[in-house]
Amino acid sequence: MHRLRWALLTVMALAAVIVIAPRAIAARFAPIGPAVSDRLWQQPPPVTNDACLACHNDPSLQKKLYNGEMWSLSIDLKDHASSVHGQAGLACVQCHTNFDESHVKNPVQFPGFNANDRRDASLKLVTVCQQCHADQYAKANDSVHARAQKAGDVNAAICTDCHTAHTVRRLTDPVTKQLLPDARQWVPLTCAKCHSTIYNQYKDSVHGAALTQEGNLDVPTCIDCHGVHNIGDPTTAAFRLKSPNLCAKCHADPKIMDKYGISTQVLNTYVADFHGTTVTLFQKESPDAETNKPVCFDCHGVHDIARTDDPQKGLQLKQNILKRCQVCHPSATANFSAAWLSHYIPSPDKYPVVYFVNVFYQIFIPAVLGSMAILVVLDISSIARRRLRKPKDRPQPPAGKPSDTDVTGKESSHG
């Protein structure tokens, strides 16, 4: 019994090691994400928010940086409480991990933190975001903004430039994970902090005006075309070649386009013509190669896309579409642009003449070719029957009467 008891204890200990040890190792070396941070936040923080805000709720609290700039260290209690982090009950020191009890005892000391100016301070502090948002942080490090920083542009956007530091707002629905309605209107305004010229073009465009003036949530915002954290370089050939697919995300979706009576054949009709076929081939075979074939924004514009019936830029007007065509085809005349069907498949309502001509040929051509095929089949079957007929079945001349032709194939004379 004694040996059996020890054997059972040994087996249980080994089972515990096998089950618990891999999880402990994985938790130790895995990137900190929501699952890990949730466990950490359940532990009482070494310093409470009340202790931090006893000083940092003072509007006059500032720190003089090395270059002489004054950096405000004041945190508005109401703003923080209404933020997504404040609503989750996160403690200040769960982000500011280097500000511990020693800082509370001696507020002048900032352990392990030195900054030349306010921007340098932001660049150093933003690394704390990856503790909980590892995936988003990794994507941002591969974005056009991160590449600009590496090239020496310290003002390129970082997490806190878009989301702020202490007033972070909720952007997506916790259940559906979809962007909240007010967040869609907030996104362009956020991008405008750096890209104000582009925003001014966007807000007056057919998309921007619908969003900012009418509250229409069907229209795209900046992130729908450029991405969220992994924003690519829109000046590359690769972005240009894939841009028709970006436009098609909305313009080929009947759930959106049917509301406004807009054709969903935009991508199919584009790919079917010479321009789109060439661009598609380039995208598949040489995605980094330049091409002079037009994509959507060459004709419709980039951020300043106008309504199709706009008198200045609308492509429904003959003079406007002709100007667009003449950019690549200088000798184009009015008849040249009139051949364009505006991404619509001909129907009795749209381009009825073209539609009925197509219907006529869809009936006429099969009828003609079908009739010819029937005649050929009948002719071949007739020849085959004659060749397969047995000699005794063939008509013979009367006995003693010469045939109508001699062996040379010429007609015989009968006196």
How do you describe this structure in short?
By secondary structure, the protein is mostly helical. Helix content is 51%, strand content 1%. The protein starts with a helix and ends in a 27-residue tail after the last helix.
Walkthrough of the structure:
There is one protein chain. With 415 residues, the protein is an all-alpha fold. The protein folds into 4 domains: 34-169, no CATH class; 171-231, no CATH class; 233-345, no CATH class; 354-389. It contains 22 helices and 2 strands. Strands 1-2 form a two-stranded antiparallel sheet. α17 (266-272) packs across α18. The longest helix is centred in the last third of the chain and has 37 residues, at 352-388. The termini are far apart.
Characteristic key phrases:
single chain; mainly alpha; 4 domains; 22 helices; elongated
